[in-house]
Structure formats: C-alpha cells, structure tokens
C-alpha cells in the first residue's frame, strides 16, 4: 500500500524535524534583513527541502494503489472541496491573485508564496506525513492515514508560531488553528491525488497575494468567523480520511 521509500520512517521524521528547526533558525537570524533577502533565503531553503523530500521518499507519490471513489468518499470529498472553495472566496483569494499580478511587488510576493508552499508541503505533506504513515504501519495501527494527517497538520500549525515575531498573539494563534484544519484537508488531497506537486500548487494559490503589504497589517479575523469557516472543513476532511482508511485497510486483507 505505502510505496517503498529510500529512507525509513525514522529517518524521514528526523530530516523533517531538522529542516523545520533550520527554517526557524534562519528566519530568526535574518529577521531584520530586507524582504528581498528573506525571500531569496526561503526560496533556497524550499528547494533544498524539496530535494531532500524527493531523495528520502524516492517519489512524489505516496501509495501504490488507487482509491475507489465510493458513495461515502464522493459525498464527503465533495463537501470538503465545496467548503474549501467557500473559504477561498471569503478570504478573497481570487482578488488577492489579481492584486498581486498588478502589484509592483509581484516578483517578491510570488517568491514568498512559492517558497512557503514548496517548503511547508515538502516537510509536512512530504516527509512528515510519510514518516507517520510508516510508523503507524509498523505498529499495525488502525486509521493510519487519518492519524498521520492529524500529526502532520499539528506540525504544520506549529510552524506558524514564528509569526509571533511580527504579528499579534491573537493573529498567530488563529493562523495556527486554521493551518491545522487546512493541513488536514491538504493531507486528504495529497492522499487522493497521490502527488505532492498538486498540493504545492494549491498551497501556492492560497498564499499568492500582496504579502508584503499585508504583513504589516495583520490583526486576525473574528473568532466566530474562524470557527464557522474552518470547523466544517476540519470535520468533513477527517470523515473523508476515515473512509479512506477503511477502504485501504480492506485492500490490505
């Protein structure tokens, strides 16, 4: 079911954590640097993470089988996608893309969004997700994909703690919460498409906006809006993954 990776699950987890800590250290080290310097450093780090992930996983695929889209998978998958599209609309993602295309900071904003997408997906939905899957398979655990998605999303959310250096605690906490819910959805997408590149592309689209201007004016959204938007995404994505686990567990027997 799980592709044979070049590295063991332990080594994948080790390198995921090392790159995660390197990301924290570098961004604190260059905290006072110019936006251009930060963008260049993060692009280089993102490409390194992608190469490390490909080296360790030996492929951008995750499993060696195809999902059968049963009625339950179809219903919960469509619901999760529909909710995600609503979130993109409420978060003005299409407008943000149009704005950044016409912005004088187009190249810089694009580099920032692309480096974040490549780095975070290479680590969280690449090395970490695969590592936890390997661990739960080794332990003969039930609901392996769901548990691996949750733990990779926990790391994804915790990565946003670094925003405490430039944003309010409220905004940072909210980012961690909606990153966790979004991380579950992205893990489901990674498993469904069986390709890391599609997840990177979607993450890039989400982040592709006037980030330089927005970074100086981020106070967070209302708590009620946060829970109204992201609780349904979290629930539908988890239920979808549970049905994925049930289907793939039957293929193992």
Low-confidence sequence ranges: none
> How many DSSP E strands?
0
Distance between the termini: 11 Å
Task: Give, in order, the helices and strands.
Answer: HHHHHHHHHH
Number of helices in the DSSP assignment? 10
Verbal overview:
With 253 residues, this protein is mostly helical. It is 76% helix and 0% strand. It contains 10 helices and no strands. α6 packs antiparallel against α7 and α6 runs antiparallel to α10 (223-252). The chain is globular and about 50 Å long. The chain starts with 8 loop residues before the first helix and ends with a helix. 40% of the residues are buried.
Structural descriptors:
single chain, 253 residues
Short description:
With 253 residues, the protein is an all-alpha fold.
Layout of helices and strands:
Blueprint lengths: L8 H21 L5 H23 L13 H20 L2 H9 L4 H33 L5 H15 L10 H25 L2 H12 L3 H4 L8 H30 L1
